[in-house]
Amino acid sequence: QFDIRQRLRLALIHTQLNHNPALYTQPVDKRSQSLGTQLIYSYKVNPKTLLYLGYSDSALANDEIDSLRRTDRTLFAKFSYAWKS
User: Which of 27, 57, 70, 74 places its Cα 20 to 30 Å from the Cα of 36?
Assistant: First the structure.
């Protein structure tokens, strides 16, 4: 948090799964891995008004893809205002 109005948040979410394909009736990967990242900047104009700017992406690896490979990328902005007090 930079000050009372500005804040920056970084979130990293990593998941790693190992499966035994013999236990499934459908084909599954022996291993899968994913990584999601999110960076959000928020600015509070006043107690009822906020502005959010952010970036997020995700990466995936499995039996066919050895290392994490980016699958999605998103830039976003959100304006929030409370109409009633």
Answer: 27
Helices vs. strands in the chain: H and E counts, helices first: 0, 4
Q: What CA–CA distance (Å, rounded) separates 70 from 67?
A: 10
Torsion angles phi and psi, residue 3, rounded to 5 = -155, -170
Burial of 60 (0-12, 13-18, 19+ CB in 10 A): middle
pLDDT of 85 above 70? no
Residues with Cβ within 8 Å of 40's Cβ and at least 6 positions away in sequence, in order, are 8, 9, 11, 52, 53, 54
pTM assigned to the model? 0.76
